């Protein structure tokens, strides 16, 4: 399987003035693309060549894991942004209030954790195995799928995400990134988990590998004409 660089769900200028087209040109067209290309080169002819991205993230190590996770993380990041005003579903809003006290408290905590994350990494809104919302921070390429957490939203705090527009001003980037969150995407992720834990971004390989096996079968069916 050759992975492909995803197409952006918006024009490069759509997120201005908060994220410039120049940033997106480099971030998507150079950094994200490089992870896709490196991953394809690393898995060619090997055990992971025909595996789904989620499987590789769950089981690979070293450079293969790093590049696979960075492909997944960036896919998730772009889908989580929108030029349009969006809102949380009632269910997501209720769960945020239950977990964090209020939507404003959730914002403050999420952005504080993102500002405090040392070095490069990602901050995620996740669903735990217990069914609660939580904020998870991971360094470098590390990813919720490795920690049995279901991702709902992510923020990229690698400097390449904001250095062109904000230089070292990560806090300013974060405040403006918040204005661009696609809450419909977040709400849809939550709804997909509850409707079918094997769909969409909720594909987490469990200990017995049942989910990854299921994904393998589904993808094989898609490739096989009936
Ligand atoms: Fe990035």
In short:
By secondary structure, the chain is mainly alpha-helical.
Would you kindly provide a written description of the structure presented here, covering whatever features stand out?
The protein has helices spanning 21-43, 53-59, 62-79, 90-100, 103-116, 163-166, 170-179, 183-195, 210-223; strands spanning 121-127, 133-139, 150-156. With 226 residues, it is mainly α. It is built from 9 helices and 3 strands. Helix 2 crosses helix 3 (62-79), helix 4 (90-100) packs across helix 5 and helix 5 (103-116) runs antiparallel to helix 7 (170-179). Strands 2-1-3 form a 3-stranded antiparallel beta sheet, with helices on both faces. A hairpin with a 5-residue loop joins strand 1 (121-127) and strand 2 (133-139). It has a domain at 81-223: minor pseudopilin epsh fold (3-Layer(bab) Sandwich), CATH 3.55.40.20. It is globular and about 50 Å long. Fe (ii) ion binds at residues 27, 31, 74, 156, 158, 160-161.
